[in-house]
Amino acid sequence: MEYAHKNVTKSALVIRSRLCYTRNVRSCVPAGEVRRQQAVVSGNVCVCRPILLGEYMHKKRKMCLTVAVIILGGSLWLGGCVKTEEKQTEAESEASQTEIKESEEASLLNEAVQGKAEKIENIIDQYFLFEKDEDMMEEGLYAGIMAGLGDPYSVYYTREQYADLMESTTGAYCGIGALVSQDPNTGMVSAVRIFSGTPAEEAGMLPGDVIVAVDGMDVTGIDLDLLVSQYVKGEEGTLVVITVWRQSENEYLELDITRRVVEIPTVESRMLEDQIGYVAVSQFDQVTGKQFASEVEALEGQGMTSLIVDLRGNPGGTLDSVVEMMDYILPDHIPNYARGTDSTTLIYTENKNGDGDSYSAND
Questions:
Q1: Cα separation, 79 vs 93, whole angstroms
Q2: How many whole angstroms from its chain centre is CA 192?
Q3: Cβ distance 234 to 176 under 8 Å?
Q4: How far is CA 102 from CA 24, 96, 97, 211, 262, in A?
Q5: How many of the other CB atoms lie within 10 Å of CB of 250?
Q6: What pLDDT digit, counting tens, does each position of 46-84 carry?
Q7: 299 and 309 in contact (C-beta within 8 Å)?
Q8: Strands 155-157 and 12-15: what pairing?
Q9: Residue 254 CB: number of other CB atoms within 10 A?
Q10: Residue 148 binned pLDDT confidence (cut-offs 50, 70, 90)
Q11: Rounded-to-integer distance, Cα 95 and Cα 83, Å
């Protein structure tokens, strides 16, 4: 699928913790700063799928490190002053040295680990057939640390991966408005769905059309992500000529499409028998809350008496959109569901230290 988002130039960590008041839900807390990364929280809501809860600038860690250094420096300096008045005992000195040694051994990047990493790098320099990419190796180290936790919800993202992650949750992008997929055997890219009211629909693109060329360049077999990001997406108002093969007509067609901002439909609805409303939410993007409210209101206008919300196959998304949906359909005051306030608590997050955020109904 096409998406668009502003560039993000920082790496990110996703750390697992707990998210309460929903089933099998997790959040995360910052777990150390690695090359100016941002900590991002992730978890599951209701359907046990990863959900990006939001973005958190990791400033406290730097402050804590600074304070620790100041305290340590102050202790050593004060120790020197005291030493002129009262000689430090041998026992105190040994205890201090033991604490320092234990602290060094407890650190993941201790001397032994660094030494082993250097040996591996020497072997690579000596035997590796190709030229090494040091930036890629460095990113691999960070990813390996997170992978060592053995938790699928604790992940390190590179700058590019984090940008893609943020891009995929906006719910809007600048492109043509088509969902495309690639056949793993033939490498052919075809349109799976054409969104209503989009440039692709207006140009006459249909589901099943096989994209064979973009602006005259043959794209058969090209990587799907590369095709979408480098050739199909673009600046608003620019023209792209897409050549498709339409099997039903047995011919090639050239479609002139003007790119524009497209909002991805993440919510669909219909009325079932007995005035039962049905709403399917395909993913939780920034636009999902607004779309959900619009669909529910449309069903209410048709006389809906009950509602089914279908989250099957939903891979997750942003917590804010989940909160917005819950806030829309739940009463403000539900007995026994308030945490320190009169409002209904929808979701609250909690890390292993008991710290977190609470989200309450406020409509």
A1: 11
A2: 24
A3: no
A4: 36, 10, 9, 61, 56
A5: 7
A6: 322 333 333 222 322 232 222 222 223 332 222 333 333
A7: no
A8: antiparallel
A9: 11
A10: very high
A11: 16
